[in-house]
Amino acid sequence: GKDRIIFATKEDHETPSSAELVEDDPDDPYEEQGLILPNGDINWNCPCLGGMASGPCGEQFKSAFSCFHYSTEEIKGSDCVDQFRAMQECMQKYPDLYPQEDENEEKSSKDLEATSVEASAAKEEKGSS
């Protein structure tokens, strides 16, 4: 796909480069746009996606992310469970590329989240009395 291998000889390196730098195109729709383009479309070239859109599970990622982005459900993305499940199943086939969160880490972050929610609720109760 996206990569191209070029072999250079010693002679290639001895001659000055004829490459010309092209000035940035102000009309390039992907340049400095972020995740969402001005027209509301997803910018699959955004570095913020970390290559997820082009990896071995890129199509599943695009399907799930598109579904979520365009979801109009009351609970956004609740209609995308099948797409996210397909993406997760694909990612589990490539554990080196998509490391799974350690069970202990996941548990401790949920515990931490629950603790902070409980602490917030306790503060609110004290403040309202």
Automatic annotation (TrEMBL):
Residues 57-93 form the CHCH domain. This is MIA40 protein. Residues 1-15 have a biased composition (Basic and acidic residues). GO terms for cellular component: mitochondrial intermembrane space. Residues 1-32, 95-129 are annotated as: Disordered. Keywords: Disulfide bond, Mitochondrion, Oxidoreductase, Protein transport, Redox-active center, Translocation, Transport. It comes from Serilophus lunatus (silver-breasted broadbill). GO terms for molecular function: protein-disulfide reductase activity. It is found in: Mitochondrion intermembrane space. Residues 21-31 have a biased composition (Acidic residues). GO terms for biological process: mitochondrial respiratory chain complex assembly; protein import into mitochondrial intermembrane space. The gene is Chchd4.
